Amino acid sequence: MPGTMAEVLGIEILELTPDRVVATMPVNSATRQPMGLLHGGASVALAETVASIGSWKRIDDPTKQTAVGLEINANHLRSKREGIVTAVATPVHTGRKTMVWDIRITDEASKLICISRCTVAIVDIQV
């Protein structure tokens, strides 16, 4: 995803289907807060990225509509200083105008780092 926040944060999409999106993100200088821990905002950016991409994948005609984050919440459950985190997003609701995704971010040992819920709006592309 050149030229995007995902590129800056090192987010890589590993799996993309209408029912599941999996992506990884390194814990490094780009994603850490000043105390050396994974920044909560980086986790939220990862969560919204997988939810938005998953919603986009479900749009009938992506030349006429796109997916944009409408609301997101996150609970940061465990800290992380280095390594890789993996986000797995699954749809909870898939409507015509909104979609809701459950996102679980884990470490290499499958320990839960963050849990998030993201509502995505499906909007018409303005030409």
TrEMBL record:
Q: Keyword check for Hydrolase, yes or no.
A: yes
Q: Which UniProt keywords apply?
A: Hydrolase
Thioesterase domain sequence ranges: 35-114
A Gene Ontology cellular-component term: cytosol
**Which superkingdom heads the taxonomic lineage of this protein's source?**
Bacteria
Family annotation (Pfam families): 4HBT (PF03061)
Q: Which PANTHER family match?
A: 1,4-DIHYDROXY-2-NAPHTHOYL-COA THIOESTERASE 1
Q: What is this protein called?
A: Hotdog fold thioesterase
What is the organism field in this record? Answer: Paenibacillus cremeus
